[in-house]
Amino acid sequence: MSAPRPSSAAGRWVREHLVLVLGLLVLAYTFVPIAIVVLMSFNAPASRNVYAFDAFTLDNWANPCADPSMCDALARSVQIGLLSTLVATVLGTLAAFALVRHDFAGRSASNLLVFLPMAAPEIVLGSSLLALFVATGFSGQLGFWTIFVAHVMFCLSFVVVAVRARLAGMDDHLEQAAMDLYATPAQTFWRVTFPLVFPGILGAALLSFSLSFDDFIITNLNAGTTTTFPMYVWGVAQRGVPMQVNVIGTVMFLVSVAIVVVGEVGNRRRLAART
Hints:
Elements: H1 6-16, H2 18-40, H3 59-62, H4 68-101, H5 107-119, H6 122-135, H7 144-168, H8 172-180, H9 185-214, H10 217-222, H11 229-236, H12 244-274
Helix pairs in contact: 2-12, 4-7, 4-9, 4-11, 5-7, 7-9, 8-9
Protein name: ABC transporter permease
Organism: Nocardioides abyssi
Subcellular location: Cell membrane
């Protein structure tokens, strides 16, 4: 019996591990830019006009606010992100409960309209909001609060969709069982419904903050003279990006990883406690 040829063995290995190889390539494609950002956060460039690693330094981390305007823009983005996330999460959660749990005139149309801000291009949303602010007399007052209103508007749809999906996947018998055990509607909501829906609400809130913090197009059209962190990066890119921008990017990435890790550890502990 002849031994299998190396070419056939290699081909069989590729067929058996094709999905794994493609997955690793996708992960590499995703994380290589992040790795470059982390690397450049330790860079001491010879010139701001050349975005290339020149020498290792910790000065960027020791002095993240070497340019005070960058930290001002960062703080403003965080403030807008937190406020818009809070308002969008509350309103979106209430809207999701109404769409899932109640039958009312216009429910089907409301379900359709929720998706429009998600499907429309950002340039359309941004220009529409700008036209709205101009028509209502706010053309000379564009700034923090107009950005806030715009961010609540486009974050709201994502919250409604995320929370509604969580509610649709819930088992109604759990709430009925609580009622059968003489729980009041308030007790049923806070002890049964809310804990089950909370992961969806938390995920929607995190997504809203990411979208708000990262937004450029809608913000740029409705910001007036106010500068957020993405607008700052776009402005300084024309004359050389300071390496401290990579420090902020690295910190945001580490915070995101920490949130995911903490959530996964919490889920595994809850599963272990049930078993």
